[in-house]
Amino acid sequence: xxxxxxxxxxxxxxxxxxxxxxxxxxxxxxxxxxxxxxxxxxxxxxxxxxxxxxxxxxxxxxxxxxxxxxxxxxxxxxxxxxxxxxxxxxxxxxxxxxxxxxxxxxxxxxxxxxxxxxxxxxxxxxxxxxxxxxxxxxxxxxxxxxxxxxxxxxxxxxxxxxxxxxxxxxxxxxxxxxxxxxxxxxxxxxxxxxxxxxxxxxxxxxxxxxxxxxxxxxxxxxxxxxxxxxxxxxxxxxxxxxxxxxxxxxxxxxxxxxxxxxxxxxxxxxxxxxxxxxxxxxxxxxxxxxxxxxxxxxxxxxxxxxxxxxxxxxxxxxxxxxxxxxxxxxxxxxxxxxxxxxxxxxxxxxxxxxxxxxxxxxxxxxxxxxxxxxxxxxxxxxxxxxxxxxxxxxxxxxxxxxxxxxxxxxxxxxxxxxxxxxxxxxxxxxxxxxxxxxxxxxxxxxxxxxxxxxxxxxxxxxxxx
Length: 465
Ligand code: HEM
Hints:
Elements: H1 8-11, E1 28-29, H2 38-43, H3 45-56, E2 59-64, E3 67-72, H4 75-83, E4 89-90, H5 91-99, H6 112-123, H7 128-153, E5 161-163, H8 164-179, H9 187-203, H10 215-239, H11 245-251, H12 262-293, H13 295-306, H14 325-337, E6 344-348, E7 352-354, E8 357-359, E9 364-367, H15 369-372, H16 392-396, H17 416-433, E10 434-437, E11 446-447, E12 453-454, E13 459-464
């Protein structure tokens, strides 16, 4: 069994970091020796890409994070790469350098036919029956936690400052322990969560070798801890009737009727937890900020939730998720402004052509949801929070790949319904019980890369209604 993220089909293209393909005919710049444009991109990911777009147009070459690549900006580029009609682009070879050491063999690290087979097998865990069970765990965990937050935030009329980001990060971890892993919030969950947090940090760590003391070293050790936990649980989960995502995967079969192997379950579960964790933490924080900054929208969402006529304390039934239209539009709008995956990498496995440029096989190719989501030609007043951009009519009038927070095509986010479910359930509990606000004059400080997060922990006020 191979432990590399990269299949034979794409292997030949993965050993080319830094190698100069014949890209000289493509406009762009390599930046500084060794570091390329890395520092510029880290300091100002929006402004730097906007400047390159202005200078070079929607197709340009650059060098950053140790790799030379070609960026394709805008909805047509997104469509070409994500829809990938001609199977030109490898996700495994694109994401491999970031994820291979701590999250190998996750779904995004597979391509083409192998990817199709595994995606189909995993899809079973996202059908309505299992989703309802996860939702029960979410409803319960969220309502209990928000009641605790009220105490910390000062209760009714509460004026205490409340750092939202670390709280939602912990809640997302704890919800994953129950709905993903089916374990209570005891010592075991603390160990698993700690190991998992180390793995996520390693994936974006600067040092890429597991040198003792580095994030990568902690991440690789975290992977050992998590693997041991999964391995010890798999035999009993296969024969049990657990309703959590891990138990579902332990019973899932592939097209040939065989169960997923132990190693496949370990790799898929680790990857699923990673794919869900920071993305949900980031997107929920972003909407909390926008609703606190726009009380009129907060009021509209609250009114929609109250109009469901549910008894206080019973939670949001799964069947009513579809009734929260304004909440869904507001969530989409906050992911437009702060897409949790701001850039998506691929590597070309065949020569291809785009906007008159011939681009050779082996080239690293990137698309940029963060840039596309702020193109003024698609989104008038792009910095303004306006959920009405997501009415059915407005959506019909736009390019299908103008809004791509979940990607698209074969690798489109498998957990997007889970994400809507968790976000809507969270905001239902939050807004029907509390009012959120910002201190006068508060200016947000978002770090957009690699995943948008508030640098200052997002201080809000949370007042029990
Ligand atoms: C707001 C929350 C989320 C956002 C914005 C998001 C975004 C994305 C994006 C952009 C991709 C595609 C990347 C690419 O094409 O290279 C992706 C893939 C994926 N996501 Fe999500 N995600 C979210 C939540 C979740 C959750 C909650 C889960 C699991 C429960 C999940 C599981 C996955 C998986 C398994 C893939 C790989 C799909 C494949 O390769 O076929 N995601 N996600």
